[in-house]
Amino acid sequence: MTALLELRDVTKRFGGLVAVNGLSFTMTSGEIVGLLGPNGSGKTTALNMISGLLQPNGGAIDLLGESVGGLPANRIAHRGVARTFQLVRALPSLTVGENVLAALAFRRHPIWGEAAKPKIEELLGSVGLAGRADQPAAGLTYIDLKRMELARALAAEPLLLLLDEWLAGLNPTELRAGIDLILSLRDRGMTILLVEHVMDAVRALCDRCIVMNTGSRIAEGPTDEVLRHPEVVRAYLGDLHA
Ligand SMILES: Nc1ncnc2c1ncn2[C@@H]1O[C@H](COP(=O)(O)OP(=O)(O)OP(=O)(O)O)[C@@H](O)[C@H]1O
């Protein structure tokens, strides 16, 4: 079966710093995979290359067997990759519905105006914001902002969703709701690559994990096994003691 996503020997350098060093992994449709590692290990840089915000210096990135490595972000989005950001990117002067509309207007098959209204409601409903389209985005709580950002990502009807610390900063009740929401996306067939530091969430969500340290993959496998891997424990303890 063709992998949904395949990275082969992908490298990114910033001057003399090798932020991602020969990273290889594959994902199949329907998986939730965790991309883990201590601060600065290269996780966000990897997401940035998969989504086209950064150009790799070497290696290959394929989506459904076709090369997307080095394509601009909008073309990769049109091929089916959507993402959220560590710092939520909302348009606070607009309503919740207008924020989602902006995403619908820039997707591969754009819709806008009246035609977009049912889709906006459907997207907001799918992230727990039903009936909130007319509310100003500026008034949303943190978790609701995150929900809105997710609705914007889902507006593209992606094959692959990249979540960059989407659960960070949530209180325990919100975290449970956030985990359930991500699981509901998986139940609808979404494939998700998740960068996350909240280990309870990683255990609850990820079928498999890939762990990076200083740009390289140091472990990969089922979540429980990977989190017990001595090199992974060392990398995280080293980070905590740094
Ligand atoms: N645009 C950039 N220019 C220069 N160096 C960068 C740039 N982006 C990232 N880096 C460096 O690359 C390395 C990897 O950073 P990256 O943000 O990918 O790590 P991360 O694993 O996502 O960290 P965190 O968990 O803290 O978000 C770090 O040393 C970082 O300082």
Automatic annotation (TrEMBL):
<dbReference type="GO" id="GO:0005304">
    <property type="term" value="F:L-valine transmembrane transporter activity"/>
</dbReference>
<feature type="domain" description="ABC transporter">
    <location>
        <begin position="5"/>
        <end position="239"/>
    </location>
</feature>
<dbReference type="Pfam" id="PF00005">
    <property type="entry name" value="ABC_tran"/>
</dbReference>
<dbReference type="GO" id="GO:0015188">
    <property type="term" value="F:L-isoleucine transmembrane transporter activity"/>
</dbReference>
<dbReference type="GO" id="GO:0042941">
    <property type="term" value="P:D-alanine transmembrane transport"/>
</dbReference>
<dbReference type="GO" id="GO:0005886">
    <property type="term" value="C:plasma membrane"/>
</dbReference>
<dbReference type="GO" id="GO:0005524">
    <property type="term" value="F:ATP binding"/>
</dbReference>
<keyword id="KW-0547">Nucleotide-binding</keyword>
<dbReference type="GO" id="GO:1903805">
    <property type="term" value="P:L-valine import across plasma membrane"/>
</dbReference>
<dbReference type="InterPro" id="IPR003593">
    <property type="entry name" value="AAA+_ATPase"/>
</dbReference>
<dbReference type="InterPro" id="IPR027417">
    <property type="entry name" value="P-loop_NTPase"/>
</dbReference>
<dbReference type="GO" id="GO:0015192">
    <property type="term" value="F:L-phenylalanine transmembrane transporter activity"/>
</dbReference>
<protein>
    <submittedName>
        <fullName>ATP-binding cassette domain-containing protein</fullName>
    </submittedName>
</protein>
<keyword id="KW-0813">Transport</keyword>
<dbReference type="Pfam" id="PF12399">
    <property type="entry name" value="BCA_ABC_TP_C"/>
</dbReference>
<dbReference type="InterPro" id="IPR003439">
    <property type="entry name" value="ABC_transporter-like_ATP-bd"/>
</dbReference>
<dbReference type="GO" id="GO:1903806">
    <property type="term" value="P:L-isoleucine import across plasma membrane"/>
</dbReference>
<dbReference type="InterPro" id="IPR032823">
    <property type="entry name" value="BCA_ABC_TP_C"/>
</dbReference>
<dbReference type="GO" id="GO:0016887">
    <property type="term" value="F:ATP hydrolysis activity"/>
</dbReference>
<dbReference type="InterPro" id="IPR051120">
    <property type="entry name" value="ABC_AA/LPS_Transport"/>
</dbReference>
<dbReference type="GO" id="GO:0015808">
    <property type="term" value="P:L-alanine transport"/>
</dbReference>
<keyword id="KW-0067">ATP-binding</keyword>
